[in-house]
Design a protein that fits this description.
alpha+beta; 2 domains; two-stranded antiparallel ribbon; 1 helix; 23% strand; flat
């Protein structure tokens, strides 16, 4: 299952129509609503998935040679077996049998 979440905050009023205090309050309200929509959508996506592993950090263009790395993060409260999973494109890596991420754990691949 793939979930894409896109949201934008648009101020449709002209600045002269509202005072600075009200403008800030409207902007803050829009941000809070967008955040809540995003949080609910993510919760639904995570609740319906068996596991969710994401790229947490990527060092793709380091100052020194040969120290590129990625960090994977397990967003779920359960362990995830990565046996047989692979990374492809630019590099090829297949995780060995028995590679398991702890719940809410991080895995550094260098």
């Amino acid at each position: 299952m793939e979930t894409t979440i896109i949201f934008t905050i648009i101020n449709t009023r002209k600045e002269k129509d509202i005072s600075p205090g009200k403008s800030n309050l409207l902007t803050l309200t829009r941000i809070i609503i967008a955040f809540l929509c995003f949080t609910v959508s993510m919760h639904r996506a995570m609740a319906s998935a068996d596991s969710v592993v994401v790229f947490n950090e990527v060092q793709y263009h380091p100052a020194a040679e040969g120290v590129e790395w990625i960090e994977l993060r397990n967003l779920m409260g359960v362990r995830v077996d990565l046996s047989g999973w692979k990374l492809a494109g630019g590099i090829e890596l297949r995780f060995e049998e028995g590679t398991v991420m702890d719940s809410h754990g991080l895995l550094l691949v260098a």
